Amino acid sequence: MSVALLEFHCFENLWLYDVMINNMDPRRMTVNSSQSSFLVFSAYFDSGHLKYLFFVIVMSLYFLIITANVLLIVVICVNRSLHEPMYMFLCSLFVNELYGSTGLFPSLLLQILSDVHTVSAPLCFLQIFCVHTYGTAELANLAVMSYDRYLAICFPLQYHTRMSPCKVSMLIVLTWFSSFLVITVLISLMYCDNYSIVKLACSDTTVNNIYGLISTPLVILCPVSLILYTYMRILKICFSGSKQTRQKAVSTCTPHLASLLNFSFGCFFEILQSRFNMNSVPSMLRIFLSLYFLTCQPVFNPLMYGLTLSKISLTCKKLLCAGKVTGTTTHLPLQRYS
User: Fold this and answer.
1) 3-state DSSP helix/strand/coil percent for the chain, to nearest 5?
2) What is the pLDDT of residues 280-307, one digit of tens each?
3) Which domains are delineated in the chain?
4) What does 239-299 look like in DSSP terms, one character per residue?
């Protein structure tokens, strides 16, 4: 059976958990006649029995992400007082956090316990698709939420007319559909987001390059432009409006801005180390920075919105208090009377 060996030089920024390290040592992808292939991860090291400690830490983080996001999704869906546009968009954001973390953590947990750190090419590209769609949907959700805040603050009397339930549903569907559509075409054309792997293709990659150059700025610039425009209008209203308007803007926009900055921070470092030589940076720090937007954002969002938005925090406290009361309720024994 003939075996073709393709050597990977500068295997950078594959958007895969620990593979996201720049200028990795050259690795080989083996392709046999049946087109089966696998990738070898060089980010892992022999940690001995510490791998079980790492497994518990990562598993605990994943459990925290699932618990926090599912709790807020249930709170929003169950309580009719939270069936408002802002909370519906939040629900979509929390679903995306579950989606993105599920695209990372199960494979990461398996790799931590495994002695051989390899992954098949189909699973590799499936994870690339999940992580790409997560990032695109995250930015799109944040853009839609900024538009919602713009209407609520700048047009309070017309808000419910402009942001009807039908329009809310349409915006949520459009957010997810556009994210999946763009990344589906991107993966089918480019086969991987890393340009150094695209250059290994035997066929002409002109179409891939053109689509990448057009789609990438659009995916980033369109949501960012909408966010900047809406916040410029919100700031203008705040400076010229009443104290009550400013308080409303601060209370509702602060968690959104914090979430946007946190996500941008993680993406900035991921893009930075994919474009520049980061060999001088310690490997563990590079791994942390590569994983930041996939691990910290799904924890940051539910905690930020759950603690800062009064309606959600009060509802969560009522649920927790009700659970404590139910758990501590004692049943007195029935007395027998003769």
Assistant:
1) 70, 5, 25
2) 777 778 778 778 888 899 999 999 898 8
3) 4-275 (1.20.1070.10)
4) HHS-HHHHHHHHHHHHHHHHHHHHHHHHHHHHHHHHHS--TTS-HHHHHHHHHHHHHTHHH
